[in-house]
Specification:
- With 427 residues, the chain is mostly helical.
- The chain has one domain: MFS general substrate transporter like domains (Growth Hormone, Chain: A), CATH 1.20.1250.
- It contains 15 helices and no strands.
- Helix 11 packs antiparallel against helix 13 and helix 13 runs antiparallel to helix 14.
- The radius of gyration is 21 Å and the shape is globular.
Length: 427
């Protein structure tokens, strides 16, 4: 008897692979940074500028990219995004100057800008409502798995093919994913030849009629607390992703191989956090029936746990203690990914791509500021611990702002003003 995989499971698996690949292509530069810095003669501030290059178009294309995913569908949008980020990754292997490196990383951000909002759009109709936390948690767990394997993977590729060859190989892998995605995925689950009626019965119903234009004003007023909260999360994420390998190398005098292994261990803690955070949120939703409690309890626990985990580095600079503290901090930070990415679907199911793009602007903004601030602080003070100490304050702000989110209140057409300027009446 031939083994058949459910189409919904295959789609989720393909999105997991996409998250895995995109994060490898984002953070590979962190491992290769020491060689790139030496070859191109870059200061830490210049390196921080390169790290942030990804985030400028990534920020701009969060909302626009989410709109593109909503308008054109995830099938074509993710294919073209994959093509762009693959070519930019390959192109990174051929740069010879700081401006060229900046442009290559800028193009990567352009290609990846619409990916996560569009993936959320795909999950909106390919995932049962009761499994949203799990779907968001498992896909982001694969992104953190990408973080975890990247340092040793890139270190091996660099030893074999130089840092330039490593970028070319990783870019080719991204091209392959794009071809497979556009060949298999369909925007409408019902149009997929392998989906069953039993699977369709578990999926959320599609809205009927002509979709109205995005109600930007009301949607932004509902999403800004989510964006602020995600900015605070993103500040720590991009600090870890960009600077962690160099932190271990420069703070403890480790070589590339050992700094990669320590970084990999810290990032693997995030894989566990991503995996269970969404599951816990879904379980709390099922047990209590409260969307607000299910989402906020995990998010606030993540912020407070991450903050508390980093406190030991204020007093102890032993390598083992520091590595364990950073690992625990990353674990708690990643607990909140599943519930956070469920919130846009909870608040605005009909505009989930756009809403998730608005939220992810927070992380994109942090991706610009966090690496730049860290590089500048390190150059000015020579203290590699200070950026992580500053993170403690940002996490505290995130824990407070989380209480301003209201995922329990779905965005309805009652909040949208009609063309006459009058509020719509309740159904």
């Amino acid at each position: 008897m031939r083994l058949r995989f459910k189409a919904t499971h295959v789609v989720l698996a393909m999105l997991c692979v996409m998250y895995f690949i995109t994060y490898i292509d984002r953070v590979n530069i962190g491992t290769a940074a020491s060689e790139i810095q030496k070859e191109l003669h870059l200061s830490n501030t210049q390196l921080g500028f390169v790290f942030s290059a990804f985030a400028y178009p990534y920020l701009l294309f969060q909302v626009f990219g989410g709109w593109v995913g909503d308008h054109f569908g995830p099938r074509k949008t993710l294919f073209w995004c994959g093509l762009i980020w693959a070519l930019s990754t390959i192109g990174t292997g051929f740069v010879t100057t700081l401006p060229m490196l900046f442009v290559a990383r800028f193009a990567l951000g352009f290609g990846e800008g619409a990916t996560f909002p569009t993936a959320t759009r795909a999950m909106q109709y390919w995932t049962p409502s009761s499994s949203r936390g799990f779907a968001q948690g498992i896909t982001h767990a694969f992104s953190r798995l990408g973080n975890s394997v990247t340092p040793p993977l890139v270190a091996v590729l660099m030893a074999w093919l130089t840092w330039r060859g490593s970028f070319v190989v990783l870019g080719v892998v991204s091209l392959i994913w794009g071809v497979v995605w556009v060949s298999y995925f369909r925007n409408e689950p019902r149009d997929h030849r392998h989906i069953t009626e039993d699977e369709l019965a578990t999926l959320p119903p599609r809205p009927t009629g002509v979709k109205p234009p995005v109600p930007w004003g009301p949607l932004l007023s509902r999403m800004w607390p989510v964006t602020l909260t995600y900015f605070c999360y993103g500040w720590g994420l991009w600090l870890y992703l960009n600077w962690l390998p160099l932190f271990f190398k420069n703070s403890f005098g480790l070589d590339l191989k050992h700094s990669a292994l320590f970084s990999s261990g810290v990032f693997f803690a995030g894989v566990i956090g991503d995996s269970i955070g969404g599951v816990i949120s879904d379980a709390l939703l099922k047990r209590t029936g409260s969307v607000r409690f299910a989402r906020l309890s995990v998010v606030v626990t993540g912020f407070v746990g991450a903050l508390a985990s980093l406190l030991p580095i204020l007093f102890v600079h032993d390598m083992t203690v520091v590595a364990l503290s950073l690992s625990a901090g990353f674990f708690f930070s990643e607990l909140m990914i599943g519930p956070m990415w469920s919130v846009p679907m909870d608040i605005a199911p009909r505009y989930s791509g756009t809403a998730s793009g608005i939220m992810n602007m927070g992380s994109a903004g942090a991706a610009i500021a966090s690496p730049l601030v860290a590089g500048l602080v390190i150059d000015v003070t020579g203290n590699w611990y200070l950026p992580f100490i500053m993170l403690i304050g940002v996490l505290l702000v995130g824990a407070v702002s989380a209480f301003m989110m209201h995922p329990e209140l779905p965005f309805t057409e009652n909040e949208v003003r009609m063309p006459t300027g009058q509020p719509a009446t309740a159904a």
